[in-house]
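Subject: Sanity check before I submit

Could someone independently write out the structure tokens for this chain? I want to compare against mine line by line before I put it in a report. The sequence has 137 residues.
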Amino acid sequence: MPEKREIEISIGKARFGVRLNETKTAAQLLASLPRQGEGDFWGDEIYFDIGVELAEESPKAEVEVGDVAYWRPGTALCLFYGKTPASTSEKPRAASPVTVVGKLVGDPSRLKSLKDLRRIEVARRGGDFARKPERAG
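---
Independent answer below. Compare away.
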């Protein structure tokens, strides 16, 4: 049976599913879970340090709304839900090239309502953080 390639990102009480793609970077991310960090906003992007250096694969700066990507310079996971300060069109644009590792399940605009990014947790979908999450930093 193939490995389930879905993760869940918890930001406060909000939960977001992510379908991972078939990249090696996504597989490395999955193997490193659970992780925990503190996030920040950059336009309509949430990013947070996951404290793990992963491979880069076909990095690109312009992404799609709903993309979840790994940003190697900051060892960060990025959630794109709209334009960023670097955008030159309606599409999100990362500060520097990122590796897309998956796609948010459902409506990415739900991220717009979030205000408190002090506790972000990432785990395998259906996981309950029974294993203590690694804290970035």
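---
OP: Matches mine. For the report I'm noting this point. The longest helix spans residues 24-32.
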